[in-house]
Amino acid sequence: MTKTILVILVDKRKEEAVKVQQVLTFWGCLIKTRLGIHDGVLDDCSNHGLIICELVGAEAKKKEMARKLNLLKGVKAKLVNI
Question: Which of 32, 39, 43, 72 lies most in the core, judged by the most C-beta atoms within 10 Å?
Fold first, then answer.
């Protein structure tokens, strides 16, 4: 059994979060599990974030989703098959 994980590092989270969310929403049917992490709460909220998604579906669609995320400034996405 192979699992595909998409790891997304968001720099400038406050500026890029809406664009990242738009991509994730568009490709939402590929996302089985999603976990979002950023340091800080309330007035001390970090501007960096980490999103981890377990993906399902066609490999080509997973790669295209990662490619779209990597086009966003300050966003790095990487597919990991384990």
Answer: 72
